[in-house]
Amino acid sequence: MEAASVLERRNFNGLLDALTARGYRPIGPVLEAGRIVYGPIQRDSDLPIGKTDIHDGGMYRIADRPDDALFGYNLPSDSWKQYLFPPHSRLWTATKSNGSFTVAAEEIDPPRYALLGVRACELAAIRVQDTVFTGAFPDRQYNAVRDDVLIVGVNCGQAGGTCFCTSMGTGPQLTDGYDLVLTELLDGDHRFLVRSGTATGADILRELPLTPATPADCAEAEALIEHVSGHMGRMLDTDGIKDLLYDNAEHERWDDVATRCLACANCTMVCPTCFCVTTEDRPTLDGATAERWRTWDSCFSLGFSHIHGGPIRTSVKARYRQWMTHKLATWIDQFGTSGCVGCGRCITWCPVGIDITHEVAAIRTEEAVHAHR
Amino acid sequence: MRKPKLAVWKFASCDGCQLSLLDAEDELLAVAGAVEIANFPEASREVLPGPYQLSLVEGSITTPHDAERIQQVRSESEFLVTIGACATAGGIQALRNWADVAEFTRSVYATPEFIDTLDTSTAIADHVTVDFELRGCPINKGQLLEVVNAFLYGRRPDIPGYSVCIECKRRGTTCVMVADGTPCLGPVTQAGCGALCPAYHRGCYGCFGPAESANLPALISELRRLEVDDATLVRALRTYNAYAPEFRAASDELEVTG
User: Fold this and answer.
1) What is the pLDDT of chain A when averaged over all its residues?
2) Residues 103 to 162 of A: which have CB under 8 A from any B CB?
3) How far, in Å, are A23, A97, A138, A215, A220 from residue A107 at the CA level?
4) Which A residues, 332 through 371, put their C-beta within 8 Å of a C-beta on chain B?
5) Contact across the interface for A264 and B186, Cβ inside 8 Å
6) Cα separations (Å) of A82 from A37, A71, A87, A110, A153?
7) In whole angstroms, what is the distance from residue A158 CA to residue A183 CA?
8) Do A315 and A254 contact (CB within 8 A), yes or no?
9) How far apart are CA A166 and CA A286, in angstroms?
10) Is any Cβ of chain B less than 8 angstroms from the Cβ of A219?
């Protein structure tokens, strides 16, 4: 790991200047109508200074902090997926000519995003989507955006009420895969411990007025990570989770969760790894041209499993089971990792507060009861 | 090839839905190029005789005369699409279904005996076979064009039955229920409006009626947790889609238990 340096809080705009000078468009946390979401960042004053967020099942509130932290929140309501894998995109346009038709792929010229404030769980989620979109079937649009992305990670200074990254082995510390990583230090002088992870990151640091980090700075950053790790709002026991879910496809807990589940799809929309889409063909009324669009869909919609003859997952029970079993079990067979990074968004943003960690625990506990009979 | 004839019919309604067709300004010429606008009094006084290949029916059935007229419309129509909450669920006027219509006419009209009306306001599909129902109060212009387009090409309209929540998330709107504690019918309401109200920090009013897998009991228990009283819940469910089966069953249940 590269030696750490210290960036004083008063010089933070220098980092933003260095990003924009390189042609990046910085995106990061902004306070918008009482919630922290991702949006364009021009100056440090765009960041949610002195604000934090409280998370619980089906509950989110903004609160004031006793300090002026720039990154003193847990997680925005949306995720980086909004930028890397936009909700709507046109794939191609077909034009009728001489009894046949020609297809023109969508021209792609995405902005060069600098993602500012990427949490460890979020970087893990980006890497999960990388596996999906850069693997056997590379996705042209995703990769066009992703190839130019610069990642400025920020280690968590606190754990949220629905966080469980330590259970999923994804955080709270960023270990690799970033261009730059910051740890915000609030004791004494407000400053950032910074490290680069790539040559681009190192180039950017060379332009900033940094001082070498002292052992005390590094110790404070380490203590912070240790504190965060010990204060996760949720816990998910992943021991043998694949077989646990495979063995319990008919568990009565699925009926129970189906009575509470709204099948509204919020969990899948906020999940930073969920990637399911539908495609729509839109011909013009005169039939001269047609466009194919790709739009976020969800395994909670009936149309998603519609094949010849009708949908195959008609009950909400089947849909919830499909989602959770894919996320935590079949994903491992499919992509070699869990589909869950422990960010807790599905818990916070479920309008009725259904909690994936509770559902797994319930299946585990009740299975243990059955096993001992 | 002769262009298919389009007819637009009005029953008990405000005209807002059929005006969505005229509001399709950029696409109106393309529509007129693709179909023959044969019977659309809001657009032209020229009315051509049926049969019509595509009929758009707005409004609900509230009078004995309309109950007969819809049979005639059906017999003249090859493909019949109902448009809007009045036609698909009985509309706001279906509130009469819980009340005494004779009492209304006595208190509103100077000569109530002139009024020849039914005790109920019901959806068109309660009276005749409907080929496709397009929801909304009012309907979405883009969805209407999609239905016309799908009809022209003999394909199924791409009108999803899932919840408003999906539209909120696609447009990047943070959940008003979770972030503000604002009561919202979005999780049980069919998409189609583009999640308009939550984008302005309001809860969803349910204008597009029940979503495909609407779980009213689960949402109601959550809204009670947000301290919404049962009388308010009944009012929230009894608006434009009050008589849609899922909303109706839930509001009736609330009155029994509440």
Assistant:
1) 95
2) none
3) 20, 21, 17, 50, 48
4) 348-353
5) yes
6) 11, 20, 7, 13, 17
7) 11
8) no
9) 56
10) no
Tell me the pLDDT tens digit for each residue of A242-256.
999 999 999 999 999
- pLDDT band (50, 70, 90) for residue A368: low
Question: Which residue of A56, A262, A348 to mutate against B (max B Cβ within 10 Å)?
Answer: A262
Q: What is the pLDDT of residues A121-172, one digit of tens each?
A: 999 999 999 999 998 889 999 999 999 999 999 999 999 999 999 999 999 9
Which domains, and CATH codes, for chain B? Answer: 5-152 (3.40.50.700), 164-257 (no CATH)
Minimal CA separation from A77 to chain B, in Å? 6
Nearest-CA distance from A291 to chain B in Å?
Answer: 13
Residue-by-residue DSSP string for A217-259: HHHHHHHHHHHHHTT-S-----TTHHHHHHHTTT-THHHHHHH
Residues 280-309 of A with CB under 8 A from B: 280, 282-287, 295-298, 300-303
B99 forms bridges with which residues in the sheet? Answer: none
Complex ipTM more than 0.90, yes or no: yes
**What does DSSP say about strands A51-56 and B77-83: parallel, antiparallel, or unpaired?**
unpaired
The owner of tokens 């909690």 is A355
